[in-house]
Design goal:
Length: 266
């Protein structure tokens, strides 16, 4: 069986990208992943797909089995992960309908299992630069041919969810230098680094969170509004992902694997 070197973690709208897909159940020490892992080909590359929130979007952000998801992909040989996600904008110059290739995050979640190293093995992964620059370059090149604006870099504040931010929280995140708000990038990105996997967060901007200075007439975000914009953005990114994957070098020259533990956990 061919190794699935690249994986996509996202909504079920990305599943149809795969040519001749088939599903594979993967057992993990951390319970079952969100969904069976679908495998197929995109542009001559073997690619795996995992539905982050499960089939039918039934898992809220704080209940996603992040450790099982990343472990299952690594078990199948995946070394690169593309992770499209919905975000709210905290900046007047980052508009709904645009894309951001993230470069930093701030963790504001709580009580989520976020490491494979609970002891007795102790390991401290470096997350100074959490998103793989090699994958980021591929994403920027592949997404750049589309009609939507793509921002190079952005700090995503990851909140616990499933609720949205209060106005005070949103203002606090902006004052602290956050560009985006999301509910799933952490601990995905940290777990990928512990497993020596490259990770790229592709943010799909769906709203202005609770409001942004300099933008008039903004209403507080609702789930219905998010899904309405997200539907169009998923189509845009889906059409571009083949180009992104084509840009990914066959051999890794980044340092993402350096911070992983010497022995693969599990």
């Amino acid at each position: 069986m061919a190794v699935a070197e690249v994986a996509i973690i996202g909504g079920s709208g990305f599943y149809e990208l795969l040519a001749d897909p088939y599903e594979e159940e993967v057992e993990t020490p951390y319970g079952p992943p969100s969904s069976p892992v679908a495998r197929g080909r995109i542009g001559g590359r073997e690619v795996a797909f995992l539905a982050r929130h499960g089939p039918g979007h039934v898992l809220p952000p704080h209940r996603v089995p992040y450790r099982a998801n990343l472990w299952a992909l690594r078990r199948l040989g995946v070394t690169r992960v593309l992770a499209p996600c919905a975000v709210g904008s905290l900046r007047a110059d980052v508009h709904p309908g645009e894309l951001v290739v993230c470069d930093q995050f701030v963790d504001r979640t709580n009580s989520r299992p976020d490491t494979y190293f609970d002891g007795p093995t102790v390991h401290h992964a470096s997350l100074a630069d959490p998103y793989c620059q090699e994958l980021r370059s591929a994403a920027l090149a592949g997404l750049g041919g589309g009609t939507r604006r793509v921002h190079d870099g952005g700090t995503v504040v990851v909140i616990q969810g499933p609720r949205f931010s209060s106005r005070a929280e949103s203002a606090w995140f902006r004052a602290a230098g956050g560009d985006l708000v999301n509910m799933t990038q952490y601990p995905e990105v940290a777990l990928a680094r512990e497993l020596g996997m490259c990770f790229c967060g592709i943010a799909l901007v769906t709203d202005y969170d609770t409001g942004v200075d300099g933008v008039e007439g903004i209403e507080a975000v609702t789930m219905d509004a998010v899904f309405e914009v997200l539907g169009a953005l998923v189509g845009t990114v889906r059409e571009s992902l083949a180009a992104v994957i084509e840009q990914i070098p066959r051999e890794r020259r980044c340092g993402c694997a350096v911070s992983s533990a010497p022995d693969f956990p599990g």
